[in-house]
Design a protein that fits this description.
The protein has one helix at residues 63-69; strands at residues 4-7, 23-26, 33-35, 40-50, 55-60, 71-73, 78-80, 87-94, 100-102, 107-115. It is mainly beta and 142 residues long. The relative contact order is 0.26.
Length: 142
Amino acid sequence: MIIKIKSLSGKMPSYETSGSSGMDISAYLQEPIVISPGQRQLIPTGLFMEIEDGYEVQIRARSGLALKHGICLANGIGTIDSDYRGEVGVILLNAGDEDFTVHNGDRIAQMVVLQYAKAEVIPADELSDTQRGSGGFGHTGV
């Protein structure tokens, strides 16, 4: 699987260890951006991608930023579709207690490449029953 990437900074996403499933991606900024507690900001990456059909790139939070600073993705996981050719942006949310400053080149998220299948959706008046049925949200206990 090959992804063509145009990078305005010249820095490409990279796997930091041999066992990494995600490639770190960095901020591409002209000046630092401060994210106050409870605030969200769209952080540009300077990356443009050409992804093969049948694949997507998921943008995910970096666990270290979440634990140490409360920085997460406002949309949980971002999806870059194979037909999108615009700049990849990362929506960071500060769930911490202090201002967080993003500088040019900071590793702000990671990208994971996944293959997907398209489903055929058909209307139904009834669904089959299962042992679980409609139980959800803690129905099996702690």
